[in-house]
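Notebook p. 47: complex prediction with phenylalanine.
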Amino acid sequence: MKNEILRIGEEALRELKELDGLEALQELKVKVLGKKGSLTALLRQMGSLAPEERPIMGQVVNEMRSRLEQAWEERSAELDVLSLQKRLATERIDITLPGVRVTRGHHHPVTQVVEEIEDIFLGMGFQIAEGPEIETDYYNFEALNLPKEHPAREMQDSFYITEEILLRTHTSPVQIRTMEKLCPALPVKIIAPGTVYRNDDDATHSPMFHQVEGLVLDRGIRLSDLKGILLNFSRQMFGESREIRLRPSFFPFTEPSAEVDISCMLCGGAGCRLCKGTGWIEVLGSGMVHPKVIKMGGYNPSEVTGFAFGMGVERIAMLKFGIEDMRLLFDNDLRFLQQF
Ligand code: PHE
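Predicted complex, structure tokens below:
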């Protein structure tokens, strides 16, 4: 029996040297010292020994067991170090390598201009309103004093979805929607930026483009208020030395109506290629809100008056950045967009 104990012990010690991981170490421990382990099995047989032999065998077993335990401790510490070294070797990273650079984008020039326009009008106490891009014939035309068969409808080539539903051709329907929502509150003082659609496509027209609508409604609003607000806007947008002029025009939803020109930002008004020699650049349509439109919005036109305007954002971006073809804004060519 003694030999048996020594044989099991020595073999375990040899295996211990060869095994290469903490798992294998644990397995070996179970195999020898575990409940069903080989040494444990021998211990069970102690009962069948002669009484005088028992203490001797007991000592042999205990010695072997403590040798094994010590060896286990040592091997386990060694394996710990080995596994750490292995991880350090394989998981090593070179912190001196240059990192993966995340390039940072910026807003599209059209978005930049919309935000700049918003900032300027927010600074003058306006609020921002929105409306749907898929609009009904009623809001896009009827309520803006453009009945069916009205020749002015042809000023805007529309994308119809059904006879009553279309992609909005301008942001003016937001005038009606806002009045309906706010009525009878006063003043109404909003801008409505957004995307609009017309069947048009050349260097200065895109089938999808952006407008910013403006609407001010209160008791006693006058044409001079329109002019003052737009002069303030023009100077903040294009420089303090800008002047504006109002040219008589026509829109069914304003009366009187005016096109607003800004003194040329390139030549200052002397006349150049940009302003085609006139010294003025047309930037937006405007006018005093037509009494019928005020009424459509729910207000009483004999008590309140107001003005409205609508500007094309791409046009303003082109003037501001010196872009000659509107389509460049929508080609999504980074070489172009990164310049702004
Ligand atoms: N909705 C007009 C257009 O798209 C612009 C406009 C808005 C004119 C408000 C007057 C008042 O052409």
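Notes: The chain has two domains: 2-90, 109-337. The mean pLDDT is 92.
Next step: compare against the earlier run before touching the bench.
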